[in-house]
Amino acid sequence: MTRLRVIIWEMEKIVSLQKSALKEISAAKDLDELEGLRRKYFSKKSGELAKIIKDLPKLEPEKRREVGQLVNQAKVEVEKALEEKSSQLSAPSSQLDWLDITAPGIPTPEGHLHLITQAIREISGIFERIGFVRRRYPEVETDWYTFEGLNMPKNHPARDEWETFFITDNIVLTPHTSSGQLREMERGQLPIRMINISRCARRQSDISHVPIHYEFEGLLIDKNVSISHLKGVLTHFAQEFFGPERKIRLRPYDFRFTEPSFEIDVICHLCQGKGCRFCESGWTELGGAGMVHPKVLENGGIDPKEYSGFAFGWGVERTYLMKSNVNIPDIRLIYKNDIRFLKQF
Ligand code: PHE
User: For residue 336, how far is its CA from the centre of ligand 1 (angstroms)?
Assistant: First the structure.
């Protein structure tokens, strides 16, 4: 080989080494691969560029200068590429490939209060806004507050309607919130505007009854209270709770502790008053009400000649099921505590 050809051959080799080194470096996928490339070109023993540099002293001085310049330039370029790729590969963004900040979030599952707790709060709110005060009276009660003081003497057949659980002859699981009426009167603070919401128990279980349910009882006692006040308060309740289109009506009934007594009906939520298989008449029954019996006022220490009042009371669960947007076929589902069911509301 002539001197010139040797130089050209050396120089081509360096240029092609530099080219392939840069290509391999830019394709490296991780730091290990990059380290392998660094060794391939620069390891003291066998590195391809390192070898040429090591052999430089063996070359003739002129050749040495030209080849030396080129190989040093190649060394600088390749080292720079290694450096850059290395910092690229160790940057946090490429190490966190699994994190896609544009992916939609996974919503945290959120619970809610039980349907009946929500209904109780809504009912209390409706009455509290017109001046009633929330109360809660004993759920285990004596015969006097439950029956006798409410004008139902021992052995009176009316008692049968309440399907009561007896703890002893004289103590019962209260079957209705009306047992709170006398306790409220005994506080001796007139006028009275009470909304008593408590748990009640009755020996019943079918698609429209549970053995333990909540009732709410309104009691208002003041001077010159009349039936129209009762109707006004109940209309307010029905329209707030069910919606403005749900009218109510009072239907004569019989309770021992109110006189006169009524049952309250509301326009049926299924047919909106037209009459359907469920309600027949276009109306469905909410619960009982009436003007407080003078004897009950007396039993509560209130003079019936000076004061009068009204009372009403019925089940929270039933009332909740009569909302037009609630469609629950069996009241017992409410207390099965099946999250899949409760989650729907
Ligand atoms: N306590 C009665 C019942 O459970 C309803 C009622 C309440 C009636 C208040 C009149 C006055 O059936």
Answer: 27
pTM above 0.85, yes or no: no
Residues with CB under 6 A from ligand 1: 176, 178, 217, 255, 258, 287-290, 311-313
E strand intervals along 101-227: 133-135, 140-142, 165-166, 171-173, 192-201, 212-222
Cα torsion 29, 31, 32, 37: sign:
positive
In testing the pocket of ligand 1, which one of 159, 255, 264, 291 has its CB within 8 Å of the most ligand atoms?
255
Rg (CA), the chain: 44
CB proximity list for 130: less than 8 A, separation 6 or greater: 233, 236
Atom of ligand 1 nearest to the CA of 219: 9
Residue 325 has a pLDDT of: 80
CB contact burial 140-173 (16+ within 10 A = b; e otherwise): ebbbebbbbbbbbeeeeeebeebebeeeeeeebb
Structure tokens at 155: 């052995």
Nearest atom, ligand 1, residue 292 CA = 11
pLDDT of residue 229: 98
Contact between 332 and 317 under an 8 Å Cβ cutoff? The reply is no
Contact residues for 230 (Cβ-Cβ < 8 A; gap 6+): 250, 262, 289, 290, 291, 310, 312
What CATH number matches the domain at 115-342, 3.20.20.480, 3.10.180.10, 3.30.750.24, 3.30.930.10?
Answer: 3.30.930.10
The residues spanned by each domain of the chain are: 3-96, 115-342
CA-CA-CA-CA torsion sign (197, 201, 202, 207): positive
**267 phi and psi angles, rounded to 5 deg:** -55, 135
d(CA 315, CA 343): 22
DSSP reduced 3-state for 275: coil
Note the pLDDT of residue 92.
Answer: 65
pLDDT < 70: residue spans in the chain? 1-6, 92-96
- Predicted pLDDT at 58: 85
Ligand 1, atom 4, residue with closest C-alpha: 176
